[in-house]
Write a structure and sequence with these properties.
Length: 210
Amino acid sequence: MNNEEYVKSIAGMFNFLAEIFYQNPTEELKDTISTLEIPLFVTKDANFNKLVFNHISELKTLAQQLPVLALKQDFNILFVRPKGKKAYPWGSVYLNNQNRLFDQSTLDFMDFCQSNNLNFNLTQHEPTDHFALMLVALVYCLELDLQEQQNRTKQLLEQHLLTWSDRFLCLVAEHSESRFYGASAELCMLLLEDIKQANNIELKPVELFK
């Protein structure tokens, strides 16, 4: 598998995971996941492939079996309800010692996006350091770096995403009542570990506050 094939594969996976973590679940989303073609998705580390396939297969089964209401309830408990979300999806909540939104880490990510001409067409006023939006940014960087041989991907991973993503995904896996979001989180952790290894990233210790 060459680098272009790898980018196409992992970008496809991150795109549909971004939709899972950002979009209130619908029948259309369930149908999209139910019809995923598993063999299209491969990782750099062959040891991960079987695990990735297993998680995608599980997601397909869950999307086929679970009613959309169960997914909506899980989504709300994890990411949406006004107080006591089980897994806050914004980076600054974990990186700020008072768990604030729109903190310095949010501004740093906004600067990164601006310097790389990455704009999100958001329908509401919300922090841009949402996990799903960072996955969208990751896909953008992967595809652009492939064309221009730059290191945007590594910078995004090291400085903005991997600093807090494991904690967020562990909370999702722990508290998902439908299992659908838990399986999504576990798949995402595998893919992020794969891309971390592919980019030779060694993370510096970061203190998290949630």
